[in-house]
Design a protein that fits this description.
Two copies of one chain form a homodimer. Chain A is an alpha+beta fold. Chain A folds into two domains: about 140 residues, Jelly Rolls; about 90 residues, Arc Repressor Mutant, subunit A, CATH 1.10.10.10. In chain A, helix 5 crosses helix 7 and helix 5 packs across helix 8. The radius of gyration of chain A is 18 Å and the shape is globular. Chains A and B meet through strand 7, helix 2, helix 3, helix 4 and helix 6 of A and strand 7, helix 2, helix 3, helix 4 and helix 6 of B. Chain A binds a DNA duplex through helix 7. Chains A, B: Pfam families: cNMP_binding, HTH_Crp_2. Chains A, B: GO terms for molecular function: DNA binding.
DNA sequence: CGTTAGATTGAGCTCGCTCAACCAGTGTGG
DNA sequence: CCACACTGGTTGAGCGAGCTCAATCTAACG
């Protein structure tokens, strides 16, 4: 809630039962009581602008969020300002779990676009674990999913070439976006700058630009309006030697 | 249980109540009933040799492990054989959680030394969630801890120089080892080869060797008997600009 | 029309890579 | 006891992917 962008806390309470995300096939069907609890667990909604810092390293947020719409990213900084983007957050993703469980946040989260978020009370997490073991299991599942994504990212940064890394990253983000319906006729628009890509891949901005240019020349992606349009996910996947998301239906809190 | 090394399954059943690890100050005190459940959750012990593959990518292990003694590492491979080590596992760490929750393993785990492991039945995880919310919470906590370690690793590989990376890695491993009592008079011995370090840092073997040499020249570490001895953790931390483990007491299943 | 954010391009450098030996310790079979 | 092989560490030489520095360009915006 610090940071450049504005943020507005609303109590609009779109009930979870009619959450548009929940209808998507990517998400597991919830039982009635579970759904009711989640709905009661929800404390309100938060709308933030692009550029807003949702959570920041070192802070002790009392909240846990689920993204309803918009894009964001998690990152860490070194003392001297070097930035590493750890992962991106999309609709349906949970934010702040690490902080809720372990106290202090060890990374920050920033909005890449205007975002709408569900807010949950950290304090009620215990009640969830006590009364809804199925949901508790789901939360662990969500943590394990994040771990998997990080494993892949590590493999990519550690062992792939710049071109492979870029291809992997864009294919990965586009695949996730597609799963939550953010694709217009095969194409996926990702609101990131080349600086974001550089800070995700561990490359310099200049080299990232030259690398992305190769992807553009191969007609795998486009770059325009300060964002990326993925044209050929399969082409990117082949280039990166990546098998794609192994993802089943997942829970949505 | 595939792989080069031998493995022996034992039913020796050292009861959890008298587990030597559990006495360490690094681990949380458990309630009597929790402890009893964990003990009943335990199905046996597994002893493996150095080099044994405990779990492998693509498999569907029915087990979940906690390390009682010894060292191991998690890794992923690219089709062409490039290997990325994701993290190391030490006594008290849990192995196979991702696989237990999500089905198929997406990484492998290999022993760096002879290891002794507690074996748990994957099927009983649900019962744990149902009957012991505190333990369920602990498991999520453990997953979040792994996530934190990966965040740090990503920052390191992505944004630190080779020398900083090496310093970070060895300081990190030595710190964790120290927490579980694996330190003789200030020094910590880590049973890894330079090839392991290279595959963790995303560097070539040759460059890793030259980088480690600098650490040796600065008297921060020693290298001998096919292993590493960390002499000066604080020196390594300073070199890497790393603040150290932010770790509280943690649960031990 | 000046300013700013983001993309682009060229030039030169350097960190980390590959290739190729070589060395030391250890274990094995004859 | 020696010859041989094997693992893991060490070192030098030359190369190249990715870096920094420094401009330039474009579009959006006030």
């Amino acid at each position: 809630m610090t940071g450049r962008g504005d943020s507005t806390e609303v109590t609009r309470q779109v009930p979870c039962e009619s959450c548009p995300l929940r209808q998507m096939p990517a998400f597991r069907e919830f039982e009635k009581p579970e759904l009711a609890f989640v709905s009661s667990f929800k404390r309100g909604e938060l709308a933030v602008d692009k550029g807003a810092t949702l959570l920041s390293e070192g802070s002790n947020s009392a909240h846990l969020f689920t993204v309803l719409s918009g894009w964001g990213f998690r990152y860490k900084l070194l003392e001297d300002g070097r930035r590493q983007i750890l992962n991106y957050v999309l609709p349906g993703d949970m934010i702040g779990l690490q902080g809720s469980l372990m106290g202090e946040m060890q990374h920050s989260v920033e909005a890449l676009s205007p975002m709408l978020l569900c807010m949950f009370e950290r304090d009620r997490l215990m009640a969830l674990y006590r009364d809804y073991p199925g949901l508790a299991y789901d939360i662990t599942w969500i943590a394990a999913r994040e771990e998997r994504m990080l494993d892949e990212a590590l493999l990519s940064i550690g062992r792939r070439s710049a071109l492979e890394r870029a291809a992997y990253l864009l294919a990965f983000i586009a695949s996730r976006a597609r799963k939550v319906g953010m694709n217009g006729k095969g194409k996926v628009d990702i609101p990131i700058t080349q600086q974001h890509v550089a800070d995700t891949l561990g490359l310099s901005l200049v080299h990232t630009n030259k690398t992305i240019r190769k992807l553009i020349d191969r007609k795998l992606v486009q770059w325009r309006d300060g964002g990326c349009t993925v044209l050929d996910i399969d082409g990117l996947m082949a280039l990166a030697d990546w098998g794609g998301l192994a993802e089943q239906v997942r829970p949505l809190l």
